[in-house]
Amino acid sequence: MPRLTRLLPLAALLRAVPAAAHATGARDHHAPPGWTLDPWIVGPLLLAAGLFARGARRLLARSGQGSAALRRRARLYAIGLAVLGAALVSPLHEAGERSFAAHMFEHELLMLVGAPLLVLAEPLAVMLWAFPPAGRRALAAAVPVVAAPWRWLTGAVTSTALQAAALWLWHAPALFDRALASEGWHVAQHLSFLVTALLFWTAMLHRRTPAGVAALCLVATAIVSGALGALMAFATSPWYAGYASLGMAPFGLTPAEDQQLAGLLMWVPGSLVHAGAALMLMRRLLVDAGTGAQHVR
Question: Which domain holds residue 137?
Answer without folding.
Answer: 2-296
